[in-house]
Design a protein that fits this description.
The complex is a heterodimer of chains A (112) and B (114).
Chain A: E1 3-5, E2 10-14, E3 19-21, E4 24-26, E5 32-38, E6 45-50, E7 56-58, E8 64-68, E9 73-78, E10 87-94, E11 101-102, E12 106-111
Parallel strand pairs in A: 2-12
Antiparallel strand pairs in A: 1-4, 3-9, 5-6, 5-10, 7-8, 8-9, 10-11, 10-12
Chain B: E1 5-6, E2 10-13, E3 19-24, E4 31-37, E5 43-50, E6 53-57, E7 65-68, E8 75-79, E9 88-95, E10 104-105, E11 109-113
Parallel strand pairs in B: 2-11
Antiparallel strand pairs in B: 1-3, 3-8, 4-5, 4-9, 5-6, 7-8, 9-10, 9-11
The chains are: A mainly beta (112), B mainly beta (114).
Chain lengths: 112, 114
């Protein structure tokens, strides 16, 4: 069955530190991959997406993600986090249509 | 940017009663969705709605669930009667086309069934 796994429910980092949020997928073929962010009391916002080509994709606010077919992963990274990055981050996948399968989310807390 | 609005953010209801969750989608969007997230679990697809009809629904979309968008107003999810296991956060989304990258999500309505 298709699935998306985010193994870390909570991540805490200090402001200015680098960040990696992990995401692994299980699909019969390479899916389209997405990262969303949800700030408190707001809807999910699309950070970045991967369809094909360069495995490193750039998103908004300095985020990037790297696709790895061999590892079935799509990890999110940021070189230097800011306190305003504190939010819940969701990894999601789609087989090409509108239907998204989500991971359970990672709560990121950035300590000042 | 475009926003999908869900009001209220939290609803509390007694088991067996009816509840209607309201969603105000992006104005020119044509496709509408509901997702359900039980605390600590993945957000899961419930239903996709287009041109006045349910296009696709998941196993989670029980017979007690219904959706409609009368006269182009709110896109609603009705649960009648509610059960304890319906307690979750329900996210509405809308899109212009039928592809995931154009989805806009609301901030969710937390439904608590007592």
């Amino acid at each position: 069955a298709q699935s998306v796994t985010q193994p870390d429910a909570r991540v805490t980092v200090s402001e200015g530190a680098s960040l990696q949020l992990r995401c692994k997928y299980s699909y019969s073929a390479t899916p389209y991959l997405f990262w969303y962010v949800q700030y408190p009391r707001q809807g999910l916002q699309l950070l970045l997406k991967y369809y094909s080509g360069d495995p490193v994709v750039q998103g908004v606010n300095g985020f990037e993600a790297e696709f790895s077919k061999s590892n079935s992963s799509f990890h999110l990274r940021k070189a230097s986090v800011h306190w305003s990055d504190s939010a819940v981050y969701f990894c999601a996948a789609s087989s090409g249509s509108w239907q998204l399968i989500f991971g359970s989310g990672t709560q990121l807390t950035v300590m000042p | 940017g475009p926003k999908v609005l869900q009001i209220p953010s939290h609803q509390i209801i007694d088991m067996g009663q009816m509840v209607t969750l309201n969603c105000d989608p992006v104005s020119n969007h044509l496709y509408f969705y509901w997702y359900k997230q039980i605390l600590g679990q993945q957000m899961e697809f419930l239903v996709n709605f287009y041109n006045g009809k349910v296009m696709e629904k998941s196993k989670l979309f029980k017979d007690q669930f219904s959706v409609e968008r009368p006269d182009g107003s709110y896109f609603t999810l009705k649960i009648q009667p509610t059960a304890l296991e319906d307690s979750a956060v329900y996210f509405c989304a809308s899109s212009l086309g039928q592809n995931a990258e154009t989805l806009y999500f609301g901030s969710g309505t937390r439904l608590t069934v007592l």
